[in-house]
Amino acid sequence: MPEKYELGRWEIACIMLNVLTYKVFTGFPRLFAEVSGTGGWLTAIVCGGVALLLIGLILLLYKKLGKSNILEVAEMAAGKAGRYLVSAILLIYLIFSNALALREFTEVMKTVAFPSAALAFVMVFFVAAMVVGVLSGFDAIARLHVLAVPVAVFITLAIVFSAIRYGTVGNLFPVFGTGVKQVFGKGMITLSIYSDIITLFLINPFSKKNVRWRRVGFMSALGGILITAAVILTFIMIVPYPTSTDTNIPIYPLAKVIYYGRFFQRLDAFYMLALAIVGMLYLSLSMFFVTYIFADTFQLPRSRPLIWVFSLFSFLLALTVQRSDGLHRIIYLSSFVLWGIGFLLPIICAAAAKVRGKRREAEVVEQN
């Protein structure tokens, strides 16, 4: 990562908004309906509140750790072994997340725009955009976020606010859907939709000196959670349960129902634009951090050759799932693990670093 490039408030906000909302363009929101039924919207609100509390806790723990990224914090907590362990966990997480997102975006784009094309053919375009983005460098990726994310957010909100008037309030009842235990218990696995909050603790060292990155990160998380909850609420209002559990692309039906006359009859075209934007940006950013962490862990002088290796690996990994129902099963099962990496890993690292730091301070006081 180029040390000379510094992130301002807008760059951090756009990056975090994208990583926290890109999943609403995939089949992930369907999970809320599967777990809680008509109460999926309540699960979205509850999980959003829990996620915000956890993010606030993490940022509070980071208050006295300066701008150290999560790898440096892990080293403070457990030395080099801790850094290597966290690097390995993050590499596995980012590679898996990148391959899963690549397959998800490809499936959606193929279904919506290229139904007769081969899956690998459509996927190549996303891989090419990802490789070009990573080769261009972190500064280019950050600037593209600033230019493109506001457009994607505007399109998403326009679809939600335009589609909600076609919804039926009765689809939200019964409020607790499949049961209170499902909404407030099992529904917590949907926290994984915000697992990419961990990105904030990789980009924080590169924020400008006058930027309060914790405040910007928290407000971006709040914005991302509100957008996600609005999309899920509108989706459940428009697509009744149990039909909502069979909808592979939840946000697409919202764009299809909108009608503002003949000229604005096909707003789903704007949905595809937003999908392409958030998909290519997320894939580029996640692949960049894969190569960055790997090169940093093994002290490699150059990371550019790794781009081709990991991009090919992600492409092949994304192709291993043969059917869309198999893909959704992977999303469901991985949800039990992803939220732990996104939330628990930063908490454990930061808390352990603070405890070790206090012990060192106590030892210094005793020696004096």
Can you describe what's shown?
The chain is mainly α and 368 residues long. Helices cover 71% and strands 0% of the residues. The chain has helices at 9-21, 30-36, 40-61, 70-112, 119-136, 138-163, 180-184, 200-203, 213-238, 251-257, 268-297, 304-318, 324-367. The longest helix has 44 residues, at 324-367.
Distance between the termini: 41 Å
Radius of gyration: 21 Å
Low-confidence stretches: none
Mean pLDDT: 90
> Main beta sheet: strand number and arrangement?
none
Classification by helices and strands:
mainly alpha
Fraction of residues in helices?
A: over 70%
What is the number of helical segments per DSSP (H or I, 4+ residues)?
13
How large a portion of the residues is in β-strands, by DSSP E?
A: under 5%
Counted beta strands? 0
Task: Give the helices and strands as they follow along the chain.
Answer: HHHHHHHHHHHHH
How would you sum up the global shape? globular
What is the topological layout?
Layout: H1 9-21, H2 30-36, H3 40-61, H4 70-112, H5 119-136, H6 138-163, H7 180-184, H8 200-203, H9 213-238, H10 251-257, H11 268-297, H12 304-318, H13 324-367
Brief overview:
The chain is mostly helical and 368 residues long.
List the main descriptive attributes of the protein structure presented here:
71% helix; 13 helices; mainly alpha
